[in-house]
């Protein structure tokens, strides 16, 4: 039973008013990660937060921001803009996944065309 006037939280969302909102803990978690990358750099913040990889961390924050965008678009847009700027300043691009990876089997500087086999003499 929930007493009158108390905060009503369902699945981490505040539902006690006419519209659903993010709770303070979720907003703080997003803001702390954005601020950490802004203040330090991506690799240093990832190590401090004990994530296994930079890619995993970036996907995590991107996912939190996507979730926040569905709930509070105005707040999330500002946080996402700061996140993109922090990534750009730290890595020189808006996402560490921006550069396409070469196709499997292709080597840089290889003179062989696709589907050709090297001849050994």
Give an account of the 3D structure.
The chain is mainly alpha-helical. It has a domain at 22-91. Helices cover 50% and strands 5% of the residues. It has four helices and three strands, in the order E-E-E-H-H-H-H. The protein has helices at 24-39, 42-48, 54-71, 73-91, and strands spanning 9-10, 13-14, 21-22. It has a three-stranded antiparallel sheet. A hairpin with a 6-residue loop joins strand 2 (13-14) and strand 3. Helix 1 crosses helix 2 and helix 3 (54-71) packs antiparallel against helix 4. The longest helix has 19 residues, at 73-91. The protein is elongated, with a radius of gyration of 22 Å.
Tally of individual helices: 4
Helix content: 40-55%
Helix/strand/pairing category: mainly alpha
Low-confidence stretches: none
Q: Tell me about the largest β-sheet.
A: 3 strands, antiparallel
Q: What distance lies between the first and last C-alpha atoms, to the nearest angstrom?
A: 83 Å
Order of helices and strands: EEEHHHH
Radius of gyration: 22 Å
Task: Please tally the β strands and state the result.
Answer: 3
What global shape is seen? elongated
Average pLDDT taken over every residue: 82
State the strand order across the main sheet. Answer: 1-2-3
| Content of β-strand | under 5%
């Amino acid at each position: 039973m929930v007493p009158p006037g108390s905060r009503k939280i369902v699945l981490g969302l505040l539902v006690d008013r006419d519209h659903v909102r993010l709770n303070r803990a979720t907003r703080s978690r997003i803001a702390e990660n954005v601020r950490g990358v802004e203040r330090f750099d991506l690799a240093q913040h990832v190590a401090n937060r004990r994530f296994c990889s930079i890619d995993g961390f970036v996907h995590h924050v991107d996912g939190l921001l996507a979730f926040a965008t569905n709930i509070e678009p105005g707040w999330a847009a500002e946080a996402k803009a700061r996140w993109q700027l922090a990534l750009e300043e730290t890595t020189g691009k808006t996402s560490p996944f921006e550069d396409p990876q070469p196709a499997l089997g292709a080597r840089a500087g290889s003179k062989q065309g696709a589907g050709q086999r090297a001849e050994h003499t």
